[in-house]
Amino acid sequence: MQKKKKLRAHDSTALSSELIIRPIKKKVWLFLIPTFLCFVIGFVWPFISGIYLSFCEFRLIREALYIPLDKIKDVFVGFSNYVRAFEDESFRKAFTYTASYAVVSVLIINVFSFFLAYLLTQKIKGSNLFRAVFFMPNLIGGIVLSYIWQLIFNGILIKYNTYLTANQTFGFWGLVILMSWQQIGYMMIIYIAGFQSVSEDILEAARIDGANKMQSLFKVIVPNMMSTITVCMFLTLTNSFKLYDQNLALTGGAPVMTTASGTQIKMTEMLALNISSSFGKINTWAKGTAQAKAVIFFIMVAAISLIQLKATKSKEVQQ
Amino acid sequence: MKNDAKREKTIAWIITIILTATSLAWVLPIVIVLINSFKDKGSIALETFKLPNADTFVGFLNYTNGVNMGNYSFWTCVYYSIVITVLSVGLILVCTSMSAWYISRVNSRFAKIVYALCTFSMIVPFQMVQFTLSSTASMLHLNTPYTIPVVYLGFGAGMAIFMFTGFVKQIPLEIEEAAVMDGCSPVQTFFKVVLPMLSPSLISVGILEAMWVWNDYLLPYLVLDITKYRTIPIHIQYLRGSYGQVDMGASMALIILALLPVVLVYIFCQKYIIKGVAAGAVKG
Fold first, then answer.
1. SS3 B213
2. Among candidates A301, A23, A60, which has minimal Cα distance to B189?
3. pLDDT one-digit tens code per residue, B174-206
4. Quick one: fold of A84-318?
């Protein structure tokens, strides 16, 4: 009986929704095609031609940095751009630098934002004001942010007769402080939403069972917030891999070191900056190699995202 | 029982003190820049943390110098930044909400492919397309502040469509059925029935996109002709990143001027912005 009812209800929606859908479908040129065309211009075509160009060499050198594609003669050269990308010492250095920055910043940002969110969800006065203050740096763009902190760092370091770009360590921790200052507020907002989603009933039950605040935080709240924690961890991880503006404006990759083989390596250059600046070099294979680096970079970022997708899905099943 | 209440109160006080101290660290950097923007340019690098005195105080000189620094008016940058942000966000909101509605109502193969491509585009870093996108844009003459919204719509459509389809799916179909029964065409149904119901998510998506476009540096730097058109981030990076002596005083003043519109907007829309980010994060 019940099954029949359900079936009938389903049928009627299917019928009437068909009535709605057909006229909408006819208006595809209005609803979907304009966006799709822009999407092709802004993403699909650049992506496909980007992959193609990573296998090419540009045999025509022009003075202008970004010339229309049809004026460049590109010759298919197979995987040699990828070989060059992997052989590039500055690219490998940028990778290790980015990876170590990512590990440090993911840990610091998540620990601090988690506890800030915890404090802010306690019953205290003015928590909205605090929230607003901590979030504020996210509205300031990376370029402006970096120059604010550059002033502070150099102002402190000048007392010790040195400056921010004097060595790699200053640049590294400078970037970590700057990015923590910016991202803690953002992650805090997500963690607050996570704290609020933990149901009062479970907390009440824990309290009745005699759990103190610390116990209910680590044994009840944290396990129930695993999906939020994974989201924030991966968000900070991808953000650190994609970091560009702050890296460019804070140190710009300085200081530069010359290796034994004579290549110049920027000590605080991250992957995104390394790739972007190699597009600017002018020789026959520079752009192809830069594009090959970009493809490698894309695969890394995509792999992180896929792992995230898997991790969040398995967490959902657990709950 | 009484003891417990007292203890809770002390804990609340301790938390408030910790939070106040931390939030000072959040405000202080900006205050230091503000103080320095009134100091003589020579004293900024040497005595960054000192208040201006009779010798080093220069009033608004840094501001008047800063506005025309690099032979390019700062107000022109503000104008272009506003034009690009308003046009891009407007275009993104209208176009992607329409597409998201189409995608979630029509189950055609084309709609499915577009949706899959959109989700895919969200994981592609900008460096992957930076060279080919900028050459495509200049080939199609999209390199002015009035045409760059097309590029922003193209590259930013993924996230917006992804978020909007999530929101549209929560709208019950019955309401649209009623509209159709009453004789609404699809265009009318969308603009008079669906769009008003989407308004909370329009605000969320609009805020996320506006934060992105306003602060974006690399995309407009590569697409626009920067001898003619500069946004605020491009201008500041151009002045600071160029070789040679930088007028520290003027650049401090420029940073404060660049912060001003952001702070004003934030004071008035703080609640929406934080809500929008929380909603976006839950969806993403």
1. helix
2. A23
3. 888 888 888 888 899 999 999 999 998 999 899
4. MetI-like fold (1.10.3720)
The residue ranking higher by pLDDT, A5 or B34, is B34
Q: Say which of B114, B133, B251 has its CB closest to residue A46.
A: B133
**CA neighbours within 13 Å on the CB side: how many for B104?**
21
Question: How many angstroms separate the Cα of B186 from the Cα of each of A34, A248, B171, B180?
Answer: 16, 47, 16, 8
Q: Where in chain A is the domain with CATH 1.10.3720.10?
A: 84-318
Which residues 131-170 in chain A show a CB within 8 A of chain B? 131-144, 147-149, 151-152, 154-156, 158
User: pLDDT tens for residues B114-160?
Assistant: 999 999 999 999 999 999 999 999 999 999 999 999 999 999 889 99
Kindly calculate the radius of gyration of chain A based on its CA atoms and give it in whole angstroms. Answer: 26
- Residue written as token pair 């009986």: A1
Handedness of CA B38, B42, B47, B52 (dihedral sign): negative
The CA distance from B33 to B30, in Å, is: 5
CA distance B86 to B261: 14
**Position A8: which residue type?**
R
The helix-helix angle for A286-318 and B126-139 (nearest 10°) equals 130
Fold of B73-242: MetI-like fold (1.10.3720)
Tokens of B146: 């009035």
pLDDT tens for A188-244 read 999 999 999 888 888 889 889 888 888 888 888 998 898 899 889 999 999 999 999
Query: For B212-255, what is each residue's pLDDT tens digit?
Result: 999 999 999 999 988 899 999 999 999 887 655 788 899 999 99
Six token digits for residue B52 = 């201006």
Burial status of residue A5 (CB atoms within 10 A of its CB: 0-12, 13-18, 19 or more): exposed
Tell me how close the Cα of A101 comes to any Cα of chain B, in angstroms: 18
Q: Where are the beta strands (DSSP E) in chain A?
A: 56-58, 74-76, 256-258, 264-266
Q: How long is chain B?
A: 284
d(CA A92, nearest CA chain B) in Å? 17
Compute the distance between CA of residue A274 and CA of residue A258 in angstroms, rounded to an integer: 16
How far does the CA of residue B176 sit from the closest CA of chain A (Å)? 8
Could you report the predicted ipTM of this complex, rounded to two decimals? Answer: 0.92
Q: Which residue of B has its CA nearest to A194?
A: B282
Q: B223 near B154, Cβ under 8 Å?
A: no
Segment among A76-80, A113-117, B74-78 with least mean pLDDT: A76-80
